[in-house]
Amino acid sequence: MRTRIKFCGLVRPEDVDAAVDLGVDAVGFVFYPKSPRALDAQQARTLRDRLPSFVRAVGLFVNAPTPDILSTVAAVGLDIVQLHGDEPPEMIDTLNEAAGRPVWRAIRVRSRDDLLSSIASSGRAECLLLDSFSEGFGGSGKTFDWSWIPARRSSRLILSGGLDEERVGQAIAQVRPFAVDVSSGIQGASPRQKDPRRMEAFVAEVLRADALLAAQSGKA
Asked: What is the CATH number of domain 4-219?
């Protein structure tokens, strides 16, 4: 299996186009007003319309009221809802039914016990996105101890937090996640700008890591 790739926090049309050209699987739009990468529904809709059908649009929300999430899903045409705050597990069921969209649950990892407890209480989330804990919400830009992750590959696991072109290969080799998620690791001169060279290097490193694992598996 290849490792899927999500680029998050995209704001500019040229960055969306570059992500599509590089073959990423999902693009994330941030609807958390306190984030430097925040968008409103109209801005996100303009970007979403640039995505072909095989690239999924993910909306990142932090403790937003359910009616606001549903409104944004409809206005933007989001494919996936990502909850990145302290939302209760039952909210996942509500959104699954009301929005008719998969829900991803972000876990802000403090410790191994905290991680295992959060996984156990994740309910009907389609995927779990693991990020390192920070006092604020949204991406932390820092790694956590990957040895805390249960030692099995899971179709529900998306690894985030501090990944860039230098770390993602090691992360794939050690964790073997279903997907990797990156935002600050491909950042350009400002939080609202991505660096095309870092975007390309990140994808190339994921492909290299997958090829190495495939070769090792073939020799086993």
From this structure: 3.20.20.70
